[in-house]
Specification:
The complex is a heterodimer of chains A (286) and B (342). With 286 residues, chain A is mainly alpha-helical. Chain A has helices at 2-18, 21-38, 40-43, 78-114, 116-130, 134-144, 149-175, 179-186, 191-227, 239-247, 255-282. In chain A, α6 (134-144) runs antiparallel to α7. The longest helix of chain A is centred in the middle third of the chain and has 37 residues, at 78-114. The two termini of chain A are 32 Å apart. Chain B is globular, with a radius of gyration of 24 Å. The chains are: A mainly alpha (286), B mainly alpha (342). Chains A and B meet through α5, α6, α9, α10 and α11 of A and α1, α6, α7, α12 and α13 of B. Chain A: This is Peptide/nickel transport system permease protein.
Chain lengths: 286, 342
């Protein structure tokens, strides 16, 4: 009986999702970006163009049958480099959110559940960290250390957890006084048990919506950093630095900016649509 | 009511100081984990060890860390943020020169954001699920999905192609001889000096940078306004007004808009951080020559004192903006004041 109701609840959720065309399109876009990133060497027509290849005879070629998006200033195939550029973007997303989301959520739960001094200290600290413009901090850290992917990740992560902490704190705070939490405590459950088994499941939907929307922000963020020349080191292809490179040759060589620019838009659009769809599906505020 | 503002200010001032303390500590730690010797970096590899030692001593790098921090803070309090390692100019003087340009850009951007996003949010909520709603939502999605540097680059190129006479670099036409001061805001200074030509030129120069900076905010604020409007439409007090036969126009503009502007304002406060961040990119593309350009140069040249100052001032910027927003919200939402008074 219980299984039947669970199944139908799960089915209803899926049904709501599948009836939302924007969300389905978003999911497909995200899936295609992930597939392109994983199978980049197979999809790219000139995988060797990811490195420091120079082919001066073919530089600045407009899009044609061989080079779908044209070639850049060193004669490298822009389509291949764009496909590999997704790898950098997704690595950044995984690196940042893989650390920031668990830490932020854990701190938010602890602050909301513990109350008292712990709560005041943690929320105070979160608010302070929130006051630092992340891009400014990332620029400062990235350059003071060494501008590369790992340091960019580090810098973004250092500030990103605050958003999750705030969100999860709010949810935890609203359910910490519920009867079933009290019941679990009376039954002798440990704090850890209550946090992991009673509170966390209530936060999962909010966290997943926020994380999906965040993925889009992190991609934008990484692209902005490398547009400013503080992201990945050349010749590794990155969508932001490809735009910066192509910008010098505008407007005649428009394709050099168009492909990486559209790729950024495509990936962020996918995550945004999927995140909005998940939000409607779970019916949460995130 | 007066008490409320005193209390709010007192609480905010304490928070402000705490944030500044942690921020300064973070900046200080950041500056000390730099690999390599700042003095050596400033002087370059050809300097002798004696020269490096002399600079180290002048920068106070040979003192214990605690002493260095105390000295940094006590100087910062008086507005002395040290000298640039690269140009040996006063960092605070440089920032005072460049800050008005960025403030002007940011203020105009915020005006554009609210002027576009709030009506759009109201319209999309009012005509929910119609073509107006769908196109408005699509527009706001574009705003949040396209990075501001792409908007900036595109606008610049489009202008160069189609309106060759429209300026896309700098703040004003230099040939006009813009008045220098007293505020540093060209729009204000030109009017004070009675120079409508400079005012127009400055406005022209502002259009594209402000627009590319505003797009992300427009996207966010439209969404938030829309959902706040929809949320409040279903509430009892609005249904009561409706059942009394109050016209929709009055409900929307006198009651709903006021209630629904609280959420967008709060988000705007948080968005302020990314606005400052994006200003770095937009100023670079349009050669704006403001605080963010200065900061970017400082970062690229590893000018440590200037970098520390830029992060600190950005943080202060953010906190001040949020304080202003809190005040506006407390005016809009009397419940906050009464809750506090009890």
């Amino acid at each position: 009986m219980q299984d039947a109701t669970r199944l139908s609840a799960g089915y209803m959720t899926w049904y709501r999702f599948s009836r939302n065309p924007a969300a389905v399109i978003g999911a497909l876009i995200v899936l295609s970006v992930i597939v392109m990133a994983i199978f980049a060497p197979l999809i790219a027509r000139f995988p060797e163009h990811v490195g420091a290849v120079v082919d001066f005879r073919n530089r600045h070629m407009p899009p044609d049958v061989d080079n779908w998006f044209g070639t850049d200033k060193a004669g490298r195939d822009i389509f291949s480099r764009t496909v590999f550029g997704f790898r950098v973007s997704l690595l950044l997303v995984i690196g940042v959110l893989g650390v920031a989301v668990p830490i932020g959520s854990a701190l938010g739960m602890i602050a909301g559940y513990a109350g008292g001094l712990t709560e005041r200290l943690l929320t105070g600290f979160t608010d302070i960290m929130l006051a630092i413009p992340p891009l400014v901090m990332a620029l400062a850290i990235g350059n003071v250390l060494e501008p590369n992917l790992v340091n960019a990740m580090l810098a973004i992560t250092l500030l990103w957890w605050t958003w999750h902490a705030r969100l999860v704190y709010r949810v935890t705070k609203s359910i910490a006084a519920e009867d079933y939490i009290e019941a679990a405590r009376l039954a002798g459950a440990s704090h850890l048990h209550i946090l992991a088994k009673e509170i966390l499941p209530n936060c999962i939907s909010v966290i997943s919506v926020k994380t999906t929307l965040d993925a889009a922000f992190v991609i934008l963020f990484g692209a902005t950093l490398s547009f400013l020349g503080l992201g990945v080191k050349p010749p590794t292809p990155d969508l932001g630095s490809m735009v910066a490179d192509g910008r010098q040759f505008l407007p005649e060589k428009w394709w050099e900016v168009l492909a990486p620019g559209f790729a950024i838009f495509y990936a962020t659009l996918g995550f945004n649509l999927l995140g909005d769809g998940l939000r409607d599906m779970f019916d949460v505020e995130a | 009511m007066g008490n409320y503002y005193v209390a709010l200010f007192a609480r905010r001032a304490v928070g402000f100081l705490m944030v500044l303390f942690v921020l300064s500590l973070m900046i200080f730690v950041l500056a000390r984990i730099v690999p390599g010797d700042p003095a050596r970096m400033a002087l370059g590899p050809s300097a002798t060890q004696a020269q490096v030692d002399q600079l180290r001593q002048r920068m106070g790098l040979d003192e214990p860390l605690i002493t260095q921090y105390v000295s940094y803070v006590s100087h910062a309090v008086t507005g002395d943020l040290g000298r640039s390692i690269v140009s040996d100019r006063e960092v605070s003087a440089d920032i005072a020169t460049f800050l008005p340009a960025t403030l002007e850009l940011v203020i105009v951007t915020i005006v554009i954001i609210f002027a576009v996003a709030v009506p759009l949010g109201v319209l999309t909520a009012r005509y929910r699920n119609s073509w107006i709603d769908n196109s408005g939502r699509f527009f706001s999605l574009i705003g949040v999905t396209i990075p501001s540097f792409l908007f900036a680059v595109t606008l610049q190129i489009l202008a160069a192609d189609h309106f060759p006479s429209w300026p896309t670099l700098g703040r004003v036409d230099f040939q006009l001889g813009a008045p220098a001061g007293p505020t540093g805001f060209l729009l204000v200074d030109s009017l004070l000096a009675g120079r409508p030509d400079v005012f127009l030129s400055a406005l022209q120069h502002l259009a594209f940078p402000a627009l590319s900076l505003a797009m992300a905010g427009i996207g966010q604020i439209t969404r938030i306004t829309r959902s706040a409007m929809i949320d409040h439409q279903r509430r009892d007090h609005v249904l009561t007004l409706k059942s009394f036969g109050v016209p929709d126009r009055v409900i929307v503009f006198r009651y709903l808009l006021k209630l629904s502007s609280i959420a967008p304002l709060t988000i705007m406060g948080l968005e302020f951080a990314s606005l400052i961040g994006n200003a770095f990119v937009v100023e670079m593309v349009f050669s704006w020559g403001g605080f963010a350009s200065y900061g970017l140069d400082a970062i690229l040249q590893k000018d440590l004192n200037a970098v520390m100052a830029v992060v600190l001032v950005s943080g202060i910027f953010f906190i001040a903006a949020n304080l202003v927003i809190d005040l506006i919200i407390s005016i809009l939402d009397p419940r906050l004041r009464f809750k506090e008074a009890r």
